[in-house]
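SAMPLE LOG
Freezer: B-3
Tube label: C17
Construct: single chain, 76 aa
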Amino acid sequence: MQTSTSKLTSKYQATIPEPVRRALHLDAGDAIAFDIENDHITLRKARPVDLAFTRALEGTLTEWESSADEEAYHDL
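STRUCTURE (predicted):
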């Protein structure tokens, strides 16, 4: 097993290490998916069905977009 690490920026962004990008055949602009199950998270290249599902939900999740919500939940 190989382990790669990356640091989070102040905006919670991280660079995907080169060995991970190579293993997942990721290129700049590719979408990635995080599968969360209990205390395990799997990173993978997003599939077309993942992107279609996200696009279908985009217009329905606007109730949490106010600046008050952003301020209340910014540190989560």
